[in-house]
Design brief:
single chain, Arc Repressor Mutant, subunit A, two-stranded antiparallel sheet
Length: 374
């Protein structure tokens, strides 16, 4: 890695674009601090991965992890939708929030579809393009060639290309660069740890910036896809956007440092620290979920004849922690009056909390569960 050279700037007339070097080559790991971090990351990921085998209904909890990832990844790009707003039905979203809400919903859909497609498609440019198309469908970037590598120059930061912070490679080189990235992802001729591979892949993808819009969100989404594709994780239960958002300045600085100073090691250290911290938080969250699930099931058993319906509601809430009376009627088959009695019981047990404050159209959240993801 000491020999790493990121690329070079090429004069394009009135601006200079950055042309990254190819990454599908022999990489030599010499940094012992990185070796130590890699060992810690492997241990933490192993602990986290155990939950996908031993927790019943793990898919029920994954939906909340995806929801958090969608809001945090979109937040990095300036989208202002919190988890409560993301849980709303489209009809309940205010006009000024609708665009942001749509972008978060697209992210959720893009992640879910991409995970499903991994059963048929490898980690590839085709999968990346399909995911990008879903991400930008019907939102603010829908006119910026969803699902198609760009055919014109883009730039990062600045009002125009003249004062840009970074100008990615010229569009005519994108297919070759992405083909090289794909070959690196699947290169088995030379061993290189997969966690280091995906750190480099994410860096290279963000450097190539192959789409006109949505590169940041797709690049972060690729991390989870790669970990699942390589069977490092059996289920998509690790997402780095929260770590990147909380360390946004360092995130961008370390990417630029690799490009300008050829310091790929510092970027990889930052990335692996993110893996370790996120995996630890994931373990703590799953532990807290299990404790809350046990406690909630115990509490609902005190409700006598309404216990059975209460447990049906709680099961729904662990997947979608926002509810209204009509949904309770649908789940339980109870009358509206009985459903309101059930709501009162669940409020008393501090399972539900009313958040709208109005007399009509009241919505309730499973607050103690939602807080585990904040």
């Amino acid at each position: 890695m000491k020999q790493f050279t990121s690329g070079k700037y090429i004069n394009q007339g009135y601006y200079k674009s950055f042309q990254p070097n190819l990454i599908n080559k022999h990489w030599l790991l010499e940094n012992m601090e990185l070796v130590s971090l890699l060992s810690k990351a492997d241990r933490q990921l192993g602990r986290l991965d155990m939950y996908s085998e031993h927790i019943p209904d793990i898919d029920m909890f994954i939906s909340m992890h995806v929801l958090k990832e969608a809001t945090q990844s979109s937040k990095i790009e300036g989208t202002q939708t919190n988890m409560e707003e993301a849980l709303l039905d489209r009809k309940d979203v205010s006009i000024e929030k609708k665009d942001d809400w749509e972008e978060v919903q697209n992210y959720i859909q893009a992640m879910q579809q991409a995970i499903e497609k991994l059963n048929k498609l490898p980690f590839s440019s085709r999968l990346i393009k399909d995911t990008h198309k879903t991400l930008l469908q019907g939102v603010r970037g829908e006119h910026k060639s969803p699902g198609i590598f760009r055919t014109s120059q883009n730039w990062i930061g600045g009002a125009s290309i003249d004062d840009a912070i970074f100008v990615p490679p010229i569009h005519s080189s994108i297919n070759d660069l992405m083909s090289d990235l794909e070959s690196f992802a699947h290169n088995t001729d030379v061993y290189f740890p997969d966690l280091l591979k995906i750190a480099i892949i994410h860096y290279q993808f963000e450097t190539i910036h192959p789409f006109l819009d949505g590169n940041g969100r797709v690049g972060r989404l690729l991390i989870t896809l790669y970990l699942v594709d390589k069977e490092i994780l059996k289920k998509p239960i690790l997402y780095l956007s929260d770590f990147f958002e909380r360390n946004k300045t360092l995130y961008y600085e370390n990417l630029m440092r690799a490009r300008i100073e050829n310091d790929i090691v510092q970027w990889i250290k930052f990335f692996i620290v993110g893996i370790i911290e996120t995996a630890k938080k994931g373990v703590a969250t799953f532990d807290a979920i299990l404790k809350l699930k046990t406690q909630t099931e115990h509490n609902t058993q005190t409700l006598g004849t309404r216990a059975n319906n209460a447990q049906k509601i709680v099961k729904y809430l662990f997947k979608h922690p926002m509810i209204e009376v009509n949904k309770i009627m649908e789940i339980t088959g109870a009358s509206k009056r009985s459903s309101y009695h059930l709501i009162s019981d669940l409020e008393e047990l501090k399972i539900l909390k009313e958040i709208t404050g109005g007399k009509r159209g009241k919505r309730y959240v499973f607050d103690s569960y939602l807080n585990l993801f904040k």
